[in-house]
Amino acid sequence: MRASKLFKLARSNLVRELGALAVSSGGVALGIGCLVFFLALGAGLQGVVNEVFPVSTREVEVVVPSMAIGNLLGEARLDDAVVARLRKVPGVAAAYPKMSLRIPAVTRYNGLFFGREIHMGLEVVGVGLMPELVGEDARLPFQDRGDGAPIPIVVSRRLLEIYNKVFAPQRGLPRLTDSMLIGFQFPIELGRSYIAGKTMPNAQEAALQLVGFSDRATLAGASMPLTAVMRINRRYGADADNYSSVLLRAQNADQVPEVAASVRRMGLEIDDSERNRALQIGAAVELVTLALGILAGLITGLAAVNTMQAFYASVRERTREIGVLRAVGATRGDVAGVVLAEAAVTGLAGGVVGVLLARLAAALLDRVASNGLPDFPFKPSTFFRFQGWHVALGILVALAAALIGAFFPARAAARLDPAKALTES
Amino acid sequence: MSEPAIRLAGVGKRYPPREPGVAPLDLLIELDLTVARGEFLAIEGQSGSGKSTLLHLLGGLDRDFIGEVRVLGCDLSALSDQELAALRHAQIGFVFQSFNLLPGLSALENVLLPDFFGEGVPDAERRAREALARVGLADKGQSPPAALSGGERQRVAIARALLARPPLLLADEPTGNLDAQTGEGVISLFRELHQEGMTLLIVTHEARVSHAADRVMVLREGRLAAEPGSKHPLESE
């Protein structure tokens, strides 16, 4: 029996039973709608988590243990020799040392700031990064050009988000974008602290120039070229030989545990607090998504049971017609095929409607969130991320639920004794 | 001489008791019957006499019997379910008392129903229109069964039975639900088919149908007997 004829016959039956079709399809649509909705919500929230806590599954941050005998004896350190050893650890693709600015620094800004007169004084926390780590996030050169030249810095995207969503609205300051700020210069006083009320004898004025926004930058502070930080630390007599931390990039994510174990064997420690936080939040989102997905699966399962009952009733009502089909030459397989084709149409219709329902519900919820929730950092324009596989999975599950639900009714239809079926009143 | 269209030898059909302590029902007992190719046989009998059951045995719809049933040279008990379906599809046309049209299909689609199964029917659409024209319903092809009269529905059912141009037509009380005039039209159609060489076996309890047949047999108390005055065509050869 050709598929086109099979579906033609199935369609003729379904058209007669639109009510039953609507009930069966409706149940499937509800389950699939929930499934696709929750999957898209989970993906959307995971995206927000990744934005707030950008971590790479291939990278770990190596630090000197805060409490170690070697540390007390001055042996645990992160100098060039250790970095060279770290680069040779099996599984390590690259090592990027970082160094904190180890002298106080402040910035004071008095003047027009994008059309608003502001007066600002801030302690500056500085971290030195290798330009390779910042990469293309720097829109202007991220290289130390020595004394007298502005020091290029990159700033965390999260800092800009917090400024725009919290700081700027509270103080009536303008909201800023990447492009507005790139190239912006502001003064820095090296060797001075407002908080400590201290000014070092050789304090010096310089300038910082914002050259980009990067997830690699420190959250609360400014990230400078590593050579600039080393130069400044050395100039003020601070430690310019030992790094604060080293970012290790593994060749692949599977090798991270092995790399971490090797690092610990060297007497060093892995700072994975941020990574763990991100992973924990991500895992929580995944867990909730899974739980909601299971709930949606249960709804779809109930829809399959409902489909089964509907098709049993349909087969009972059409017993005589099934006898006629057998009389004109249908095999048992043909009869089962007709019932399963009807189920497939029901499932596909339910799946498509379910996906549309999910998108509609997501659009409504986004609209409510957009109008009803206050603006907050990292508030997404949508809480949902519909991916192609969500739709494909939704429709496949709908199809499977309908076919599973109709399997036993189809088998019962195929097993009907044609002679008895023809005498059914 | 070619093998007859139908040959029954010692055919019986027993229904098991519905309750313990009740004797099984022997609906058909030791039936022997030969129907020549091209013959028009009517089998009379009262309601519940087993006429429809006999028809179902002949059509391979009921395989639970004893004895030998040969139809168009095939021993039905030796055929698989699929082979029986293929036999019904290509070789046997069925006409039922209650028409049994599928309500979701148009008249034309109902006629085309055998084309949905097996290898289909060659040139099915043209044949279906011809069959409808032959039964006088050329202009009713798109009508749903609900829009047709009883007589029209039965004619659509006959057109469906003719689609694959089967050599054997089995009809179960084909005029049972029709008024006298409409029934006459259907009987005339059967006569035409018979004259064209088709083998017809019609079970009925109406004398007007039997009068159109070459031979009439009566099914009574599970046994077949020749109607007095009715002559077996093979006997005349």
Which short descriptors sum up this protein?
heterodimer; A: 425 residues; alpha+beta; five-stranded mixed sheet; 14 helices; 18% strand; B: 237 residues; alpha/beta; Rossmann fold; six-stranded mixed sheet; disordered C terminus
What does this structure look like?
- The complex is a heterodimer of chains A (425) and B (237).
- In chain A, 55% of the residues lie in helices and 18% in strands.
- With 425 residues, chain A is of the alpha+beta class.
- A six-stranded mixed beta sheet of chain A has the order 9-5-2-10-1-11. In chain A, strands 4-3-7-8-6 form a five-stranded mixed beta sheet.
- In chain A, β3 (105-113) and β4 (116-123) form a beta hairpin.
- The model of chain A has no long low-confidence stretch (mean pLDDT 88).
- Chain B has 237 residues and is of the alpha/beta class.
- Chain B is 30% helix and 25% strand.
- Chain B contains eight helices and ten strands.
- Chain B has helices at 51-58, 81-91, 107-111, 124-134, 150-162, 180-195, 207-210, 233-236, and strands at 6-15, 25-35, 40-44, 66-71, 74-75, 92-95, 168-172, 199-204, 215-220, 223-226.
- Chain B starts with 5 loop residues before the first strand and ends with a helix.
- Mean pLDDT of chain B is 88; it is low at 233-237.
- At the A-B interface, α1, α11 and α14 of A face α1 and α2 of B.
